[in-house]
Amino acid sequence: MNEPVTIHSTDFWVKVVEMLQQNWALIEDEVAGAVRVYFISDTSGVFDEIAFPSASSANEALKLNGFRRFADSPDLQSFLRPNRALSPIYPSQWADLFFGALLAIVSNIAAVFSPLAVLFHTAIGTSTAAKREVAGR
Questions:
Q1: DSSP 24
Q2: Quick one: pLDDT band at residue 4, thresholds 50, 70, 90?
Q3: Domain of 116?
Q4: Does one domain contain both 28 and 73?
Q5: Looking at CB atoms within 10 Å, which of 31, 44, 62, 70 has the fewest?
Q6: Separation between Cα atoms, residue 109 and residue 103, nearest integer Å
Q7: Which among 57, 8, 18 has a CA at the least distance from the CA of 41?
Q8: Do strands 13-18 and 35-40 pair parallel, antiparallel, or not at all (unpaired)?
Q9: Rg of the Cα trace of the chain?
Q10: SS3 for 45?
């Protein structure tokens, strides 16, 4: 897969791979009843595609590989949302994706600990101010 694709389907299939990772799939109609399944990562990149002779064979293959049709899964809809901004991922972009994901993780960690740092500095500042007041300085 070396060129951008346009996907018109919005009938998402999903497979929960790990606790915080899902793979998504969309089935796109082609000529003479054939279809192509595009596999999409959480970051909205198309990472693979497979051609099938029919939609029913694609549906069966997805089910056999642990995918569920999102529209038929209210339990998944309660906590998952497909990202509709799709973009293909090329092999040269894997390093960018890795470092982008690493940056996102670090940013999330910083976001969690930043309020704690503010509280810590506030507590130290209050403590120092209180000591100055008691000492009459």
A1: E
A2: confident
A3: 92-137
A4: yes
A5: 31
A6: 10
A7: 18
A8: unpaired
A9: 24
A10: strand
Residue 127 CB neighbour total at 10 angstroms: 10
Question: Do 19 and 72 lie in a common domain?
Answer: yes
Write down the pLDDT at residue 106.
Answer: 57
Which residue type, as a one-letter code, is found at position 10?
T
Residue 16 CA to residue 123 CA, distance in Å, equals 43
* pTM attached to this predicted model: 0.60
Q: Would you say 37 and 58 are in contact if contact means Cβ atoms under 8 Å apart?
A: yes
Residues 83 and 114 in one domain: no
pLDDT at 93: 46
Q: How many domains does the chain have?
A: 2
**Same domain? 127 vs 85:** no
